[in-house]
Queue: 2 jobs
Job 1
Amino acid sequence: MTWVNSDGRRHHKSKPIPNRTLPVMAESGDGEIAGTPVQELVLNPQNVPKNYIYEEGGSGFRDALLPSQDDDIPVLDLHRLSSPFTAQQELVKLHHALHSWGCFQAINHGMESSFLDKVREVSKQFFELPKEEKKKYAREPNDIEGYGNDIIYSKQQRLDWTDRVYLKVLPEDQRQFKFWPQSPNDFRSTVLQYTESLRLLSEVILKAMAKSLNLEENSFLNETGERSSMFLRFNYYPPCPIPDHVLGVKPHADGSTITFLLQDKEVEGLQVLKDDQWFKVPIIPNALLINVGDQIEIMSNGIFRSPVHRVVINKEKERLTAAMFCSPDPEKVIKPLDKLVDETRPILYRPVKNYVEIYFQYYQQGKRPMEASKI
Ligand code: OGA
Ligand code: NI
C-alpha cells in the first residue's frame, strides 16, 4: 500500500506537533530484530527485544476498569436501527454513543455467527502456516500492505507485539492479489465476502450517523466519495512472557472514517480511553465493535469522538482480531461539514487530504496525527 512513503517524514518536519501520548522511549535494540515476526520472538522468551519493552510504568496495563453498568460501552441493535418503529430511539443512542465513547458494539448486524467464525478461522490458519509459506506474502520495506509487523522509522520507536496481514480490499481495481494468501484456500473468498458485507454495513452506519445529527442521510457518504477505500487488517497477538511491559498496539486513534473490529471470541485485550481512564472492551460474542476514526471526528466538527485505544496482551493465550478501516477517496478534501459549524460551534479542524498517508508516520512515533488538523 502506498499511504506511507519514504517522504512521509516531510509532514513531521514542516509541522512539528505536540507530543501528547508518547511515553518516554526505551533505548532501541540493535536493529537485528527488524522484520522478525513477533511470532518467532516468542520462541525465545528470555529475550524480548528492548524495542518492545516499556520499562517505566509498564505494570498496570492490564488492570483497566470494566465499564460500569450505568455508563457501559453502548450496545446497538442494527435491526432496530432499520425498523421505522424503533429507528428514532436507536439514532438517539447512536448519537450518544459516538459523542461519549466514540464507539459501540453492534449486534444484529446481519452476518451469521458461522460466517464470522469463518473469518476468524482463515486468519488463524494463515498465521499457523510455516514461516516460509507466510513470507510469500511479506510486505515490502517501507510499505505496509502484506504480511509483516511494524515498519521501523526510528531507533527510538516502541514496537507493537503483533504480526499482521494488511490488505487494501477496496476499491476493487486497487487490490494487490500478490499479498492475498492463497492458503488456506478459502482465505480469498472469505475476505471478499466479508468486504462486501462490511461495505454495505458501512453505508448503513454512515447514513445513520448523519441522521443522528439531523443531517441529510448522505451527508457523510457524499464527502467520502464513490471511490472510498477499505483496508482489512488481520492482527495476530502471540502470547508474551512479560505482558505488563509490552503492548499489542500502543495508544492510538484510528485514521479511518469508521472502523469495524471483529474481536477474538475468547481473549480480551482491547481498551478504550475515556475521561483519562482506560476501560476494557468486553467481549460480546458475534458483535462487531464499531468506532469513529479521526476523519469522522473532523467531519462532525468534534461532535463524534475518535477514541484513543490500545491493546494489551496475555501471558499464555494468543489473540486474533480483524480490523476493517473505511476511508474516503484520497482525492477528497475532508473538513467539518458546513451544517455543523456556526457561532455556537466554531470550526475546530483544518481541511485534510489523503490523511492516511501521514497517519502511520505519526503513529509510529506515538503521536496523534489529528494534531495536524486541530485549529
Ligand atoms: C487496530 C486496533 C484492536 C484490536 O488494529 O487499529 O485498534 O483489538 N486493533 O486488535
Ligand atoms: Ni485501532
Job 2
Amino acid sequence: MALLKGKNVLITGASRGIGRAMAIRFAEQGANVGFTYLSSVEKGEALVKELEAFGVKAKGYRSDAADYEASEALIKDFTSDFSTLDALINNAGITRDTLLMRMSEAQWDEVLRVNLKSVFNLTKAATRVFLKQKFGSIINLTSVVGIKGNAGQANYAASKAGIIGFTKSVALELGSRNIRCNAIAPGFIETEMTAELDEKMTAEWKNAIPLKRAGKAEEVADCAIFLASDMSAYISGQVIQVDGAMLT
Ligand code: NAP
C-alpha cells in the first residue's frame, strides 16, 4: 500500500543524509517530492532523476532555509509547481561543535539561524498555504540532544530545544485549523553529519544504545512517512524519538 499516494511534500536539506533518505522513501510511497539543497548542487540535481524513477513528480530547489525571503519564495515556487502542500519537513541542519568557552559568536549565530530560524521561516510561509487549503502536516527534525543537552554542543542543543518549543506551540495554535505539527528526535544516526565525530566516542555511544547500533537515515524517514500520512491524523504536538532507546 502506498501511504503517501498523490501527496505533495517539501523537504529541506535533502541532498544528503536523512533528508535524502526521506525524499527516496517518500517517493517510494507515492508522494510527489519537492526538496531543497544549498551547497551540494550536483547531488541535489542527481536526486531529481532518482525520485522520478518511482513515477512521481520531483523538483529540487537551491534555497537557503535560513533566509526568510528565500523561504517565502520557495513556498510560492513549490505551490505554483505542485499546487497543494500536504507536508512540510524542516530537516536542514548543521553542527558547529565546540566547548562553550571556545564557541564564537559566529558559531552560535550560524547554528541558530540554520537550525531554528529556518523552521520559523518555512513554517510561517507554509502556514498561509495550509490555512487556505485547510490541512497540513509539519514535521520538524529536532534531536535527543535538544531534550538532554550535550557537552560541546550548546549551540546545537539550544537550537534543537527551541524546535521542540516551537513545534508544541504551533500544534496548539493551528490545531483548530486541521494543521498538525510534530517533531522527530533522532538519536545517533549514521550520516555525513555524524561521520565527523571521533571514532572512539561513537563506539562508546553505540555500546550505550540499548539496540546496540547506530540508526539508519531510512529508519528516521519511516517515522516521517507515518507523520506525513493519514495514519497519524490524530497525532500532533508530539516529539517522537527515533533513537534505539538511547534516551530512555
Ligand atoms: P547532513 O548529512 O549533514 O545533511 C544536512 C542537509 O542539510 C544537507 O542536505 C544540506 O544541504 C542541508 N543544509 C544545510 N544547511 C542548509 C541551509 N542553510 N539551507 C538548506 N539546506 C541546508 O545531516 P543529517 O545527519 O542528515 O541531519 C538531518 C537533520 O537531522 C538535521 O536537522 C540534524 O540536526 C538532525 N539530526 C541528525 C542526527 C544524526 O545523527 N545524523 C541526529 C539528530 C538529529 P547542502 O549539502 O546542499 O548544503
